Amino acid sequence: MSLDTAEKQKLINNYQKHGTDTGSVEVQVAMLSERITKLSGHLKSNNHDFSSRKGLLKMIGQRKRLLNYVREQSEKRYTDLVSKLGIRR
């Protein structure tokens, strides 16, 4: 479940730090979160799709590592990002 160009650009615009920022941790976490949401919906109707489930678990692990990195750098950035994304309630 990949993101199309318009969805990616919308996420980049919402989470970028400056005008040319496309790869900051915040943008990466936002894109991963959107892909995780889409793939979770797919797996609800296709519960025997084990290769997609493996990919979902890899994406969740990657997002967790990125969030841990942000938390180590700045607790404020972490809490802002988590609240903006609506994860880890």
Write up this protein.
This protein is mainly α. The chain is built from four helices and no strands. It has helices at 5-15, 25-45, 50-73, 75-85.
List the helices and strands and how they pair.
Blueprint: H1 5-15, H2 25-45, H3 50-73, H4 75-85
Helix pairs in contact: 1-2, 2-3, 3-4
Instruction: Please summarize the sheet with the most strands.
Output: none
Order of helices and strands: HHHH
Number of strands: 0
CATH superfamily of the domain at 24-85: S15/NS1, RNA-binding
CATH class of the domain at 24-85: Mainly Alpha
Enumerate how many helices there are, as a single number: 4
Beta-strand level of the residues, as a percent range?
under 5%
- Name of the CATH architecture of the domain at 24-85: Orthogonal Bundle
Mean pLDDT reading: 93
Q: Which of globular, elongated, flat, extended, rod-shaped describes the shape? A: globular
Helical proportion, percent range: over 70%
Rg (CA only): 14 Å
Distance between the termini: 24 Å
Main features:
89 residues; mainly alpha; Helix Hairpins; 4 helices
Provide a short characterization of the protein structure.
The chain is mainly alpha-helical and 89 residues long.
